[in-house]
Design brief:
Residues 1-20 and 447-453 have low confidence and may be disordered. It is rod-shaped, with a radius of gyration of 44 Å. With 457 residues, it is of the alpha+beta class. It contains 17 helices and 17 strands. The protein has three domains: 2-143, PAS domain (Beta-Lactamase), CATH 3.30.450.20; 162-270, PAS domain (Beta-Lactamase, 2-Layer Sandwich), CATH 3.30.450.20; 281-440, Alpha-Beta Plaits (2-Layer Sandwich).
Length: 457
């Protein structure tokens, strides 16, 4: 019955337009073809009256032969199909849908419109204007495509809201997607992101924008390294210094199909905390100088340079005279102040290339690279004078500090830096035996030869 209706309605449409015999044959072929397709199709004449409805459309909108008979107006046909939308669609919403569809059909607007049905199905509607002035309307099920697109949109929105920069790279090394965090981080506009930049263009843009906190002389090598990491899909994290002082950790993750996912995490706080921990591990808390462990490591490095390049290297070992008496008389707080004062004076008196550290208690060591015995003796005199010139104020009264110093210069007969330190320590104690407030720099010096003003013995 439905097939007979379709043929008769096509005949009515054909007679009203009086087509030539060849045209009638083409139209019948079109009707047969449209009846076999799996999308809903409706042919309208110039007055928007129905001339043909294929079987897929009738099933889609639950239309009977009676509904489609007598060339009904398309508006009436749509109202017959209202039941297909179910009771969840209000009369007002349905009328809005009818009006919008009629407007599109009247104007011949070919743009695609997705209709979401209450049962979850999605139909893609399109109107095509025919040369005769009529219209062909098509309704195609695109539920899977739209749902997948919806899922991708949800994922995109989720990725856009996370506090992590994300850049997706295709297997052809083209930028496919940049989330909002990455756009802000690297100064990328929406237009630039849509232009499908190559990886090289992407990295070059960041470089030209001046966003890397990398010295100019090292920038070219960095760009080459970064591009190589992405091309190889190397997942090893790389910390990138940014111009504003932040540190961004970049990581490249290979994807199935040959693509890449680049992630960017702000690890500034972690890096700063790690640096603070590292600094604490090598710093004496009381004085801010190198602690014993770090000082010995630095002394080893200087000793290695001395052995390799035969450059002069000396060290100076000193402590505060009568330190125990200061502690006993004035208390440990005063003793701490004495240690801090000695550290400050020594740090101010040394050269920029010298290294000073606290060995423990009131004992200090100064490493003097490229310094022979004569230069080290000159520094010892300056240090004696500087310590005396800055008395410590305890309980409102000035207390003069003095120090005793032992000096040792690196020589080839010594086996390691530990021997050099022992030699300087031994000479420090000889300075104590000589009466304090003096310096001993060689083993054959008279231990009783000492100067009140911190002279050299």
């Amino acid at each position: 019955m439905e097939e007979q209706y379709c043929k008769s309605s096509v005949d009515v449409w054909a007679r009203s337009h009086r087509p030539a015999p060849a045209a009638r044959g083409n139209f019948v072929e079109l009707q047969v073809s449209l009846d076999d397709v799996d999308f809903g199709a409706v042919l309208l004449d110039a007055d928007l009256r129905v001339t043909f409805v294929n079987s897929a459309f009738r099933k889609l909108w639950r239309l009977s032969e009676r509904d489609c008979a007598s060339r009904p107006a398309f508006v009436d046909l749509m109202r017959h199909g209202q039941a297909a939308l179910g009771p969840s669609v209000s009369a007002e919403a349905f009328e809005k849908h009818v009006h919008a569809t009629v407007v599109r059909a009247t104007s011949g607007d070919p743009s695609l419109v997705d209709l979401r049905l209450p049962d979850g199905e999605v139909l893609r509607f399109q109107c095509v204007a025919l040369p005769s002035g009529g219209r062909m309307l098509s309704y195609t099920r695109v539920t899977d495509i739209v749902h997948r697109s919806d899922e991708l949109e949800v994922l995109r929105n989720a990725v856009d809201t996370i506090d992590l920069g994300v850049v997706l790279i295709s297997d052809e090394l083209l930028v496919q997607f940049v989330n909002e965090k990455a756009k802000r981080l690297w100064g990328l506009t929406d237009e630039l992101c849509r232009s499908r930049l190559t990886v090289v263009e992407f990295i070059t843009h960041v470089r030209k924008a001046g966003l890397y906190g990398i010295p100019d002389e090292a920038l070219e090598d960095y760009v080459v390294k970064r591009v190589t990491i992405i091309k190889l899909g190397d997942p090893m994290p790389l910390d990138i210094p940014v111009k504003d002082g932040r540190t961004i950790r970049a990581q490249c993750t290979p994807l199935i199909g040959g693509g890449r996912m680049l992630t960017y995490t702000d690890v500034t706080d972690l890096v700063q905390r790690a640096r603070q921990q590292e600094l604490l591990a090598i710093t004496d808390v009381l004085t801010g100088l190198c602690n014993r462990r770090h000082l010995l490591r630095l002394a080893e490095a200087e000793w290695a340079r001395f052995r390799r390049y035969e450059q002069d290297f000396s060290l100076l070992y000193f402590d505060i005279d009568n330190f125990k008496a200061i502690n006993d008389r004035f208390g440990h707080d005063a003793g701490d102040q004495a240690i801090i004062r000695a550290a400050q004076v020594c740090n101010k008196a040394k050269r920029s290339t010298d290294l000073v550290g606290r060995m423990g208690g009131d004992e200090f060591v100064v490493l003097l690279p490229q310094s022979d015995g004569k230069a080290t003796l000159a520094f010892a005199k300056r240090l004696h004078a500087a310590i005396r010139s800055e008395p410590l104020i305890i309980d409102g009264a000035p207390t003069n500090l003095t120090i005793s110093i032992g000096i040792a210069q690196a020589e080839t007969h010594l086996t390691d830096v530990a021997q050099l330190l022992k030699l300087a320590d031994r000479r420090l104690y000889r300075a104590k035996e000589a009466g304090r407030n003096c310096t001993v720099w060689c083993d054959d010096a008279d231990p009783h030869r000492a100067c009140e003003d911190g002279g050299v013995g």
